[in-house]
Amino acid sequence: MLAAYPEGRKRSAVVPMLIYAQDETGAVTPELIAEVAKRCEVEPLQVDEVVGYYSMLHRKPLGKYHVQVCTNISCLLVGGEELYEHAKKKLGIGNKQVTADGQFSLEEVECMGACSWAPAVEINYDFHHYVTPERLDQLIDALRKAN
Amino acid sequence: MPTTLYNEPSPLETKVLSKRFGLENSHRLDTYLAHDGFKAFLKARQMTPEQIVEEVKTSALRGRGGAGFPTGLKWSFVPRTSPKPKYIVINADESEPGTCKDRLLMEYDPHQLIEGILIAGLAMDAHKGYLYIRGEYRYLIDHTDRAIGEAYSKGYLGKNIAGTGFDFDLYTHSGAGAYECGEETALLDSLEGKRGIPRMKPPFPAVAGAWASPTLLNNVETFSAVPNIIRDGGAAFAALGTPKNGGTRLVCISGHVNKPGVYELPLGYPMLKAIYEVAGGIPGGKKLKAVVPGGSSCPLLKAEECDIPMDYDTLAKAGSMLGSGGMVVLDETTDMVKFALRIMRFYAHESCGWCIPCREGTTWLRKILQRFDDGGGRKEDIPVLGEVSKNMLGRTFCALGDAAAMPTISIVEKFREDFEKRLAGASRASELVTV
Ligand SMILES: Cc1cc2nc3c(=O)[nH]c(=O)nc-3n(C[C@H](O)[C@H](O)[C@H](O)COP(=O)(O)O)c2cc1C
Ligand code: SF4
Ligand code: FES
Asked: Disulfide check for B432: which of B36, B335, B367, B391 has CB 3.0–4.6 Å away?
């Protein structure tokens, strides 16, 4: 990853490195920040300050399955808001909360580039299009069973 | 692999950039080579950089990322003889609400994009490119990395490309969730490992962009159009559209239509035909209320303003923009208060907070709109919505402030009755529900 950037520009790898590492560790911890800072040859503070800026980086672990429901305009018009309300009930949690067993977390998200196939849901990095409440139930139940 | 498309194509499309979509293994290099792939690169290698730029100018291609700046002109600004290294940066942040087309170009035809980038490299004398892809598109980052790997292994990236003596390295770079990073200078800061805060312009990225070096930055679709332009000539591409609005573009139709989808249509295509024929009209035979012509940043058009051809200049004359190609169709049942609130919640959330008119303005507008939506709107708030928005226009550091203000102004001016129905004390407009 570091080799992609010009000489002396290792700082460029900070954001991608954080997000890939977070996928492994579950959250951005102080140890992770220190490690990324070391590899990218910057101060830990310079890594720390980007963590709060990017919405996909987080300091606390999310659920094993992070359910992201888009309610932005294209999704809103075809039931995205109702779908999000349904997801809250189904999972029994609110925005950015994690279920007690740590399996699921929920987030109301901004447009994720699936507007013409709305309403859209992304679970971890998997996109689901034309999602109805019934379809969402199926998806969640299947993940529950898989555990 | 990606042979099933997300939506059925329409027979009314003019397929230029999307002509390989739907072919079996359309994303593979072999498929690309069997269907005109890399012919344009070899042709461009025989041309001078000036000739390449001239051809792009002739094509009347305009940036597909949002602003619609003439691409050939932008290419001519990069000082190709500068002793500094030059970079090509591809904007694949695709975060403008309503927009979902760059995704398809990377998913179904990544080698077309790679070839467009290489041609830009020839024209700029650049040898490195960075494809900045929004973090939510991880599957596409992986997919594009595989395509890049394939191109390296067959000699279409790396050293001495296709035996021409030209070297080029291409890398993907993941974003991590921030709409603001789609703005070109914020994107460059993000690429450098910082928060995505816009930079003062000038200097423009063409002169001092990535790592303070001359940088050409265009949208995915803009680069994807280039192989067609070089192969078949700029004039042929220009002729598909209308004067100064060359070619075709991927129009993302969403909202209240029977067949939402991404369709490739020539510039100047009639908007009503796109809604009623390409996208199959409005469900339940309901009436059209409004259209967001090109992503959430664009002023809305009322139904009676939509009988126009879709090109940059006509949309500008109509007081709106063609933007990023995200066309959102709203039927008569749409509650414009709710719609305006959702737009403002987005901008308030995405404002990077750097300048006060944007940071405070979006928050204030969001609060007023929320109050309306909760049934507590006050009559005097209606003009306040317009005034606060107008005060943001042109007073913010980057275009996000304008992007938040413009649709709001249009909604309050054009759909005032929706706000009046929501005044405190007025019975909640039961007939107005978003379906
Ligand atoms: C807030 C904001 C967000 C933007 N988001 C994107 C985006 O997601 N993708 C994109 O290509 N351009 C986006 N742009 C436009 C870019 O700044 C830039 O104009 C464009 O990438 C240039 O490429 P083009 O000339 O090929 O359109 C955005 C602009 C602003 C102000
Ligand atoms: S206009 Fe908004 S997003 Fe742009 S720099 Fe100012 S605060 Fe940041
Ligand atoms: S508005 Fe929901 S994916 Fe674009």
From this structure: B335
Q: What is the pLDDT of residues A90-132, one digit of tens each?
A: 999 999 999 999 999 999 999 999 999 999 999 999 999 999 9
The residue of chain A nearest to residue B142, with distances taken between CA atoms, is A125
Whether residue A76 has its Cβ less than 6 Å from ligand 3: no
Residue B253 CA to ligand 1 centre (angstroms): 19
Task: Give the domain-ending residue among B240, B275, B298.
Answer: B240
Predicted pLDDT of residue A1 = 86
Whether B193 and A6 lie within 8 Å, measured CB to CB:
no
Range of the domain at B353: 336-432
- Chain centre distance of CA A93: 16
Sign of CA dihedral B61, B67, B73, B77: negative
pLDDT at B424: 74
Amino acid at B286: K
Q: How far is the CA of A95 from the centre of ligand 1 (A)?
A: 29
Q: Which domains does chain A have, with CATH numbers?
A: 2-53 (1.10.10.1590), 65-146 (3.40.30.10)
How many Cα neighbours within 13 Å face the side chain of B11?
Answer: 0
Task: Indicate whether B216 belongs to any domain.
Answer: yes
Regarding pTM above 0.95, the answer is yes
- A-chain residue closest to B189, CA distance: A12
**What CA–CA distance (Å, rounded) separates B142 from B41?**
25
Q: Which atom of ligand 1 is found nearest the CA of B62?
A: 25
How far is residue A131's CA from residue B142's CA, in Å, rounded to a whole number? Answer: 24
pLDDT digits (tens, 9 = 90+) for B406-419: 999 999 999 999 99
Are B339 and A76 in contact (CB < 8 Å)? yes
**pLDDT tens, position by position, B256-303:** 999 999 999 999 999 999 999 999 999 999 999 999 999 999 999 999
Closest-CA distance of chain B to residue A76, Å: 8
Of A68, A69, A75, best ligand 3 pocket probe by most atoms within 8 Å of the beta carbon: A75
- For B368-398, give one letter per residue: b (16+ CB within 10 A) or e: bbebbbeeebeeebbeebbebbeebeeebbb
Task: Find, in chain A, the residue whose alpha carbon is nearest to that of B283.
Answer: A78
Q: To which H or E segment does residue B363 belong?
A: helix B356-373
Any domain includes B400: yes
Let me know if residue B115 belongs to a domain: yes
Kindly state whether residues B189 and B77 are assigned to the same domain. Answer: yes
Integer Cα distance of B347 and A110 in angstroms:
10
